[in-house]
Design goal:
Blueprint: H1 7-30, H2 37-43, H3 48-54, H4 58-78, H5 86-101, H6 106-115, H7 119-140, H8 154-173, H9 181-197
């Protein structure tokens, strides 16, 4: 899908992941307010200056994984066959990602969600999702419509799809039936598909 990364790019990507993972560990243990950029840098075995070369602040470091997953989704949507209608295209991209990533651990997901409820993180996350919503809308714009989907603006469909992904995670955490996240997500996307597929 993307061109292979060179050695320097791979090392940068590894450093970003290491900083992101260190930030997640620390906020899950100590809470967002108690964690400093210096502490994250120390935990990732880099300098404060190196941290600044990769992230503007600890919010960006914490949310890096979420942003990368959404950007991966956008690229997978763009790579779908051009004749595939928008909603089916979105579903196919998620299916591809799921085949690679698999089912997450419920307890660790809950801990991360609780850790990310800080107002500074929520504000940054909303800004990130707004940008990704536009990118996702651009990725599905121009695809052939079918039935009611032809009357739905790409931005509306992208917003609905992103909301479904986020809502599925919340519903899964509290699911009394103990279903997998994939089962909860598929059920939710099936319900949301009705206005888009007829």
């Amino acid at each position: 899908m993307n061109r292979p990364l060179g050695l320097r790019e791979r090392k940068k990507a590894e450093t970003r992941r290491a900083v992101h993972e260190a930030a997640l560990r620390l906020i899950a243990e100590l809470g967002f307010d108690a964690v400093t950029v210096e502490a994250i840098a120390d935990a990732a075995n880099i300098s404060r200056r190196t941290f600044s070369n990769y992230f503007a602040g600890k919010e960006d470091a914490v949310l890096y994984g979420d942003e990368q997953r959404f950007r991966d989704l956008v690229e997978r949507v763009r790579a779908q066959p051009p004749e595939l209608p928008p909603w089916e295209c979105l579903r196919a991209a998620v299916d591809e990602m799921w085949a690679e990533v698999g089912e997450p651990d419920r307890d660790s997901t809950l801990r991360m969600r609780l850790a990310k409820r800080h107002p500074a993180l929520l504000a940054r996350q909303l800004a990130m999702l707004s940008n990704l919503e536009r990118d996702l809308a651009d990725a599905i714009a121009g695809r052939p419509g079918r039935g009611p989907a032809a009357r739905v603006q790409p931005r509306v469909m992208a917003a609905a799809f992103i909301s479904a992904l986020r809502l599925a995670g919340h519903l899964w955490i509290d699911d009394p039936e103990g279903r997998t996240l994939r089962e909860v997500l598929d059920d939710l996307l099936d319900q949301m598909a009705l206005p888009f597929t007829g």
